[in-house]
Write a structure and sequence with these properties.
Length: about 130
């Protein structure tokens, strides 16, 4: 995952920001959280498989790993994040989606991007969905 993130950042840097802002039919964002242990900024490149108006939806899948991604644990500790896209950069607030709203959103995402359903089948943890607004 770290190698993939490094390569993705390299494409954006080498193309002067003209390439690398979409992947697999999804927009790519740079998410910066505050490290829950260090208090330092931590950035990761992620895809957003679903958007609701100006809000972005993230899937904390970690490829179906049995552990949550570090970025997710960081935003649970501090929901204030910085989001950068090809067009803009702004502060946003993360909210974890739960209950029926999560199930409905999960169905929408997995119909369009089946890989997330495959990730869920690899793990016993419920893969979290996050809305950034």
């Amino acid at each position: 995952m770290k190698l993939s993130n490094s390569l993705h950042r390299g494409v954006i840097k080498l193309s002067a920001g003209r390439k690398g802002w979409d992947a697999f039919g999804m927009p790519v964002i740079k998410l910066t959280t505050t490290g829950r242990k260090t208090g330092l900024p931590r950035s990761v490149m992620l895809t957003s498989p679903h958007q609701i108006g100006e809000s972005l939806v993230l899937v904390a899948s970690k490829g179906g790993s049995d552990t949550h991604p570090e970025w997710y644990l960081n935003l649970v500790a501090n929901s204030n994040v910085l989001v950068e896209t090809q067009a803009w950069s702004k502060e946003m607030v993360a909210q974890i989606v739960a209950g029926d709203a999560r199930e409905q959103l999960w169905d929408e995402i997995t119909k369009k991007f089946r890989n997330y359903g495959q990730y869920q089948s690899k793990t016993d943890r419920l893969i979290p969905l996050i809305i950034l607004s």
